Amino acid sequence: MAKGKKENRVHIEDVAKRAGVAISSVSRVLTGHKAVSESMRNKVEKAALDLGYQPDHLAQSLRRGSTKTIGFMIRDIMNPFFSIIAQSCEIELRKSHYSMILINSAGSESTEKSNFGVLKSRRVDGIISSLVSESSFTKNSLNSFTAPIVLLDREISGLTTSSVLCDHTSGVFDATKYLLSQGHKRIAFISGPENIYVTRNRLDGYEKAYESLNLKPPKDLIRLKDFSEKFAKEETHKLFKMSNPPTAILAGGIGSSGGVLHGLKELKIDLNQVKFIALDEWPFFDLLSPGLSSVHRDPETMGKYAAKLMLELINGGKPKSILIPTTFKNRDRASK
Amino acid sequence: MAKGKKENRVHIEDVAKRAGVAISSVSRVLTGHKAVSESMRNKVEKAALDLGYQPDHLAQSLRRGSTKTIGFMIRDIMNPFFSIIAQSCEIELRKSHYSMILINSAGSESTEKSNFGVLKSRRVDGIISSLVSESSFTKNSLNSFTAPIVLLDREISGLTTSSVLCDHTSGVFDATKYLLSQGHKRIAFISGPENIYVTRNRLDGYEKAYESLNLKPPKDLIRLKDFSEKFAKEETHKLFKMSNPPTAILAGGIGSSGGVLHGLKELKIDLNQVKFIALDEWPFFDLLSPGLSSVHRDPETMGKYAAKLMLELINGGKPKSILIPTTFKNRDRASK
DNA sequence: ACTAGTATTGGAAACGTTTCCAAGGATTTC
DNA sequence: GAAATCCTTGGAAACGTTTCCAATACTAGT
């Protein structure tokens, strides 16, 4: 109507008429119902093909009670970590004829809550989300939701959802241990909020590495708040105003890493002077000089598994968590 | 059912019963129909609030013939250029209560075509897309589509869609001119397929810069095929096998830029020896040394406008194109 | 006070499918 | 050869809304 084109949608009734059969028979053929004769199948399939019939997904959803749609709610799709997950997840879901509604929570718990409302009203068959927090507020939003939920690097106690978790501990442990072996004792640790799985898990690796050498982790160098570049940059500045500044830094997330790198640049501190290891991989890290080491979690695999866990839940499977390894990519030696 | 939770969806009928009125009256109140009395409005609103009623979007869509959903189809959401567009677009659309279905075309025309089918069957109210190509094949897919379409940096002749276009010409012109002014004559140009607006438009700026100085652009240094990192890397290798290799390179798109940078690294060519300017901005370009200059197009603004153009079309507006400026970010001097 | 007109309301059709149910025809079994 | 069974088919209800239409209640005009 807005456009001049004529609305030439073909309905199941048109197919039925052309094939000279009842509507219900067309539906049976097209949905692959068993009880249809060969001749009926042929007639209907031909008619449907001739007319280029495509069932109306809306009506199907309403009738079937399933939309074949998954809500994908994350903090920030601009973050390549999330966009890679989104991509592989979408590809995997599409194989099973599911579509994905993308919705940003922008790191706000209230936006997240209202998004839950939107997705509920749209009757998505499930939600895949990296929640803003694991607070009770969020827990309530989740509880009011009847469809299955798969969490990305989050874990809500007392709630039976599936989760795709990364084994940050081992990767961060290796990275920290490496730094300690290089003689660094004062290693700063900058990451997001303490009340989410990913941060706790990373911190765990960091502390365990110290403890494995009977050392105490330097509490004054641990800075946890959010994943913003701003926070990480400010903390970097603060760290180097200390009388006893760090000689190495670990920072989690792309935002944090950027903050540290920009902070160091502003302070005119070279990456040869202060050792920096990012707790997430970024496509061009290898191009920096010296090449940046990082702890790599595998977002592509995460997305794929998120989709798989979701489909399992939808098909009546039990919630479960899977753990994906992280690897410490040491680019010190790789500089051949 | 899969989950133990009871399905406690509240329907319009429940609200009607609680308020002691007819279903149609509830609907009128909730959709803001004018012909309702004050007392009716109060009764219904109270009942709806008490029960926490949220209309079923599916049934609404079916009846209204509008899903309030926009299909967002792009080649590669992992590309930050697209993910930034997606983000700002989604935020803008949500303000008007539209949701966005994300769907990857993976740079394949046939996938794109099948995606059109998916979106059509899902009855999206419109599609925002950066098409794989502007070929007649694609044109046919588009023509079979009745809902409005907004193109991102694409322009299909003879088809009246809205477009958000970037003025690459001026940015690339400035960049090329700058290189020429620095004494570079042999400037290579690597970009995606020739049959899309963005490439033609960039090439235009490149050639115009040469011509403005009465020089002929070096045709042997122009390499157009796709935006993959692979292609750009291979071409970089080939370029430096030439007897008369380039002294500077322009490459369009994130993939291409990565390909060139990695290619140069493999060739052990320093960014001080060969001048490289990227035709897209990437978050950490400023951290490389020397800092990378780039032509910046503004994806955030693009996404916002894409959403606006879409809403205009949906509301019966005429298709139109808007042109967004690009800027040459020279990081040579900025290295204070 | 009676009629014409208007504001408000309830009932039912419609959106486009799937699926239940019953009926009819074909096949089998005794 | 008739009864019982199975397979196939068509008709209609259902999914949860919006909106058309007709009916009622109310207002105002003479």
Write the layout of secondary structure elements.
2 copies of one chain form a homodimer.
Chain A lengths: L11 H8 L3 H8 L7 H14 L5 H8 L4 E6 L5 H16 L3 E6 L4 H13 L4 E4 L6 H8 L5 E4 L9 E6 H14 L5 E5 L5 H16 L9 E3 L4 H11 L8 E4 L2 H13 L8 E4 L14 E4 L2 H16 L6 E5 L1 E3 L7
Parallel strand pairs in A: 1-2, 1-3, 3-4, 4-5, 5-11, 6-7, 6-8, 8-9, 9-10
Antiparallel strand pairs in A: 10-12
Chain A binds a DNA duplex (30 and 30 nucleotides) through helix 2 and helix 4.
Please describe what this structure looks like:
2 copies of one chain form a homodimer. The first copy, chain A, has helices at 12-19, 23-30, 38-51, 57-64, 80-95, 109-121, 136-143, 168-181, 197-212, 229-239, 254-266, 299-314, and strands spanning 69-74, 99-104, 126-129, 149-152, 162-167, 187-191, 222-224, 248-251, 275-278, 293-296, 321-325, 327-329. Chain A is an alpha/beta fold and 336 residues long. Chain A folds into 3 domains: 12-55, lambda repressor-like DNA-binding domains (434 Repressor (Amino-terminal Domain), Orthogonal Bundle); 66-166 and 300-313, 3-Layer(aba) Sandwich (Rossmann fold); 167-298, Response regulator (Rossmann fold), CATH 3.40.50.2300. In chain A, strands 2-1-3-4-5-11 form a 6-stranded parallel beta sheet, sandwiched between helices. In chain A, helix 1 crosses helix 2, helix 8 (168-181) runs parallel beside helix 9 (197-212) and helix 10 (229-239) crosses helix 11. The longest helix of chain A is centred in the first third of the chain and has 16 residues, at 80-95. The model of chain A is unreliable at 1-6 (pLDDT under 50). Chains A and B meet through helix 4, helix 5, strand 2, helix 6 and helix 11 of A and helix 4, helix 5, strand 2, helix 6 and helix 11 of B. Strand 2 (99-104) of chain A pairs antiparallel with strand 2 (99-104) of chain B. Chain A binds a DNA duplex (30 and 30 nucleotides) through helix 2 and helix 4.
